[in-house]
Design brief:
Length: 194
């Protein structure tokens, strides 16, 4: 009779031994590490900054994870960039959203068999194989709610995860920085704002 190990270490070991789960697990640990680091360092940052930087990261992360329940991630980026460093706000928003997009990819990856049974699957697979990089980049750089569908499609056709995450990171970071600087200059250049 084979003895099955139990406990949190055994659970993490089971997750780690499955090759397709390693990268999402590493992305989750990285995101958690960044979040904890920002939370610990909040004591060294004063005033609005103490809530602003971690708040933007968490709202951006939650906005990407929550497909049904929209969280105002872009609004927090826009609001915080007026008081804080727009570059740092944009970078934190990009990283938070990228880590959150693992959920859409995982849904598509896990439901891959359901997607494969659909009539449109061969066309979708061909489309992602030939134009996937461009589509993922363009949809991630534009502020829109459609990206979740693209992430699910990428997971469903088994688009390479590391490539998906790299493209999303670049696109979401560019988007976050553009939104942050647009809001910063849009508000600070108004004549009645001092």
């Amino acid at each position: 009779m084979r003895r099955v190990a139990r406990g949190p270490v055994a659970g993490i070991t089971r997750l780690w031994t499955k090759r397709e789960r390693r990268i999402p697990l590493l992305a989750f640990v990285l995101g958690l590490g960044i979040a904890v680091t920002v939370w610990v360092l909040r004591g060294y940052i004063s005033g609005v900054e103490a809530v602003g930087y971690p708040g933007v990261f968490f709202l951006s992360f939650l906005g990407s994870v929550a497909m049904v329940f929209p969280v105002p991630g872009l609004i927090s980026v826009c609001g915080a960039s007026v008081f804080l460093s727009p570059l740092l706000i944009g970078l934190l928003a990009g990283v938070g959203e990228t880590i959150g997009e693992v959920s859409g990819y995982a849904i598509g990856y896990g439901g891959g068999t359901v997607v494969e049974r659909r009539r449109f699957y061969p066309r979708l697979k061909r489309w992602m194989d030939t134009r996937g990089t461009l589509v993922i980049f363009l949809v991630s750089i534009i502020p829109n709610p459609v990206f979740d569908v693209v992430g699910i499609a990428a997971g469903g056709v088994r688009y390479p995860f590391t490539r998906f995450m790299a493209i999303v990171l670049v696109g979401k970071t560019i988007k976050g920085v553009m939104v942050a600087y647009t809001c910063y200059y849009g508000v600070t250049l108004l004549p009645w704002v001092e």
